[in-house]
Amino acid sequence: MKLSCQELEEKLMATHYIDSELKGLNYDHTKHLVTMKYMGLSDVEGEEREYTVLFKECFSTIFNNWLEGAKGDIPQSPNDLAFYFHDISIREILVEDVHLYQVKMVIPMMDCQITCKSIEIC
Fold first, then answer.
1. Per-residue pLDDT tens digits of the chain, which is 122 residues long
2. pTM of the entire structure?
3. Distance (Å, rounded) from C-alpha 70 to C-alpha 5?
């Protein structure tokens, strides 16, 4: 059974992702799969562990880094950037009778939006 947007957001919140560093964000266009990795805390063990979120059957992905408006230590290269989550919001949309999740992530110095059919949190 497909989870609601609220249930998915609650599962993500339980990983304590806020202010966690994004460790990996990859899009495999041949599989239409986005894989996201970050370190979070487990509610059960209370220990830090790596979480993987799979966005499956993606119809749209947008990843855009920028420097405009940056303050403090300005990176000289995109390789010098570290990205930290502030928020992840999920809403359900209907496009031509196809039920999709639209995911927007608030990550300073990055625009990140994904539209997909399913989301799995591992």
1. 789 999 999 999 999 999 999 999 999 999 999 999 999 987 777 789 999 999 999 999 999 887 676 666 777 777 777 889 999 999 999 999 999 999 999 998 889 999 999 999 99
2. 0.90
3. 31
| Secondary structure string (H, E, C) spanning the chain | CCCCHHHHHHHHHCCCCCCCEEEEEEEECCCCEEEEEEEEECCCCCCEEEEEEEEEEEEEEEEEECCCCCCCCCCCCHHHCCCECCEEEEEEEEECCEEEEEEEEEECCEEEEEEEEEEEEC
